Amino acid sequence: MKRKTWLTLLGALAYACLLVYLLLMPLQAQTRGLRAFYDLLHAPCFAILALAGCLAVEQRFSQHRGRVTLGVWLAIISLGLTIEWFQDSIGRSASWVDAVSNVLGASAGCLAYLSHGSRNPRTRFGLPLLAITLLFAAVAEPLQVLSDVAVQMAEMPLLASFEYDGELSRWLVRESRCRRVPQHATAGQWALQVQLKPGKYPGVIFQHPPRDWSGYSALAMDITLAGPGPLRLVIKVQDIGHDGETDDRFHRRVLLKPGRQTIRIPLDEIRQAPHTRQLDVSQIRLLQLMTIRPQTPRSYFLDNMRLE
User: Which domain holds residue 206?
Assistant: First the structure.
């Protein structure tokens, strides 16, 4: 092979080794934004690898361009799927979403290669357009998450106001139904209606809050309880150092009365809640609102969750 061909092949192999290393190295605790950024890189990185692989072997197999491209595509998607499968054994979680992104990226790279040098106008313009469409499909979700993270940062100290559908991606719903409604909004035009079902621990979990609460003195939220009779609400706050035990987190029971009320919790109280240490309010992991074994369905409206 020519020197240029060898250099291209060695470059592609070096890039593949680097990509495998980055995908298999252990990762520490990550923020939601950092995870989305890593997810965003999957498809472009595999597209580059597929394109580099095709270019590395094109001189030697120029008469069988279609077959070679198919072979490169199969090799790279096999590599991507194997890496995702192997991640479970090294402390990283395998993700079918990442696996699909790897496949879409490899497909985009191979399509870009096939369009290169083609004399057919439809191929020259159609295949790149298809490649871009595949890349966009792969990166749309992480881009949406990064956009929501940027909105969260811009809205601080407001934690939740439910003004657009993307906010709901921050929440996990258990034994309940949730929807954005215009009724009982106290900040903006929308509130979150939480419809609790009879169950063990129905409620909602704010699983992607801004982590650093250290510059504030209190957590506050507005809640409007519908229907007759009070409701006992449990509020939990955990940091990333939570060990899974009930005495290693903030845990308070609040008696809600029918109508609107504001709950305000001093952050010093949250800090001192664990029995053997201080809760780190600069590394908040989640906030949970739940009830314990309600016998009948209940509903409340949550809005204007904020730091003061």
Answer: 158-307
